[in-house]
Amino acid sequence: MLKFTPILLAVLYGLAMYRFSVWRTARELDSKSTELADPHLKTLMDRMADALDLARIKVHIYEVDPVNGLAAPDGRIFITRGFFNKYRAGEVTAEEMSSVIAHELGHVALGHSRRRMIDFSSQNAMRAALMMVIGRFVPFVGPFIANGLMTLLAARLSRQDEYEADAYASALLVKAGIGTSPQKSLFTKLEKLTGARGAKQAAWLMSHPKTAERIAAIEANEAKWLKP
User: Fold this and answer.
1) Distance between CA atoms of residues 103 and 63, nearest Å
2) Which residue ranges make up each domain of the chain?
3) What is the C-alpha separation between 4 and 21, in angstroms, rounded?
4) SS3 per-residue string spanning the chain
5) pTM exceeds 0.85
6) Sign (positive/negative) of CA torsion 133, 134, 135, 138?
7) Is the CB of residue 89 less than 8 Å from the CB of residue 81?
8) Distances in Å between the alpha carbon of 65 and those of 31, 32, 85, 187?
9) pLDDT tens for the chain, residues 1 to 228
10) How many Cα neighbours within 13 Å face the side chain of 92?
């Protein structure tokens, strides 16, 4: 039983850290966000709400500069002020912004935040186990190898979540009569909008899939949906 104690402690530590992170994130979002109020976006959000048979879709603006959208663990949807400013400046269309909201709704509907809690805890346990096993054969570099392997796994899981949220968003946008063109056009702008250099990073180390692969996946879904 004692030999499993480090793994158990790792799981408990991971769970405790996740709970603390959720609490800290909620406090941060509460103190730095206001409800989104834009007439054009509201029209598109109402169309998506109708498609989902919801009374309304509520979105908040998170007062930070980086360009991003996020789904909080409590199910709330946020667009950063930096992203909203790009929209106000005409660099992003209302339809493209609605595709971001649809994507984040996908993360909520598919339970990705809850799943990440389990993933985070289990990854800590696996990391501890790998450190013990690999450390017996490679004493000093074992922790680095274990961390590297878990980084690869975490990136793969994150990419899978992104593909799933993209597919959900595509289906919602089609049902709402908005279509997937804004979703695909936004992807081609993201690197410039965010200042990212993801294209130079190995695909398996990225937490988000490459742009071309995301667009190809959307088009593959459309081809399946349009089959007679």
Assistant:
1) 20
2) 2-225
3) 26
4) CHHHHHHHHHHHHHHHHHHHHHHHHHHHHHHCEEECCCHHHHHHHHHHHHHCCCCCCCEEEECCCCCCEEECCCCCEEEEHHHHHHHHCCCCCHHHHHHHHHHHHHHHHCCHHHHHHHHHHHHHHHHHHHHHHHHHHCCCCHHHHHHHHHHHHHHHHHHHHHHHHHHHHHHHHHHCCCCCHHHHHHHHHHHHHHCCCHHHCCHHHCCCCCHHHHHHHHHHHHHHHCCC
5) no
6) positive
7) no
8) 15, 12, 9, 19
9) 445 555 556 556 556 666 666 677 778 788 888 999 999 999 999 999 999 999 999 999 999 999 999 888 788 999 999 999 999 999 999 999 999 999 999 999 988 765 555 455 445 555 555 555 555 555 555 555 545 544 554 555 567 888 999 999 999 999 999 999 999 999 999 888 877 554 444 444 455 678 899 999 999 998 888 766
10) 29
Q: At which residue do the structure tokens 């909201």 appear?
A: 101
Strand partners, 35: 60
- What is the widest separation between alpha-carbon atoms in the chain? 62
Q: Closest Cα to residue 33, out of 78, 68, 69? A: 78
Q: At which residue do the structure tokens 């909008």 appear?
A: 193
In the chain, the amino acid numbered 66 is P
